[in-house]
Predict the 3D structure of the following.
Amino acid sequence: MSDQVQTKAKNDWLMFALNVLKEKGPEHIKIEPLCTLKGVTKGSFYHHFKSRAAFIDALMSFWYEKMTVDFIKQANTASTPLEKLEKLDSVILKNHFGAETHIRAWALKEPIIHDYLVKIDRERQAYLTECYVEMGLSNDTASDLALMAYANFLGMQQIRPTPSIERVLRVTSMSSKLLLEKWV
């Protein structure tokens, strides 16, 4: 099997697991339930992952690349800091997956997931901070605004019933723009 085919098959496993996570929750992210749901043997799983721990590490690395690194790369195709933030919202809207809440809950029980979330949250906030600094805010103010905007974005996804991602992004953007008017 070529490396490209191997990578595609592994990524298919990871996307499948993220869908299971989104639909059924983290308690189904175990080898046997995943194999049963996928209709394959455990050998198929072990062909791609040495252990459940290696699988979780690969899953979180995949999530990080797709939902943080790739989003920031796409946002950076815009010219101005405000356009970058608007592009980021657009990318999130087009690619919102809905597994983030489950991943955050799962992190309470899986230390490796907690470690990835620390990395992800820092990188996402650093990107927002960078955009706000480019708009003319001081580092401290930009960092505080980034924290507020990010907490607002994550927190609204915890409300039940959960607002649509469109509304979450609209409200988060509205509050950030109102605060920016004060400082810029």
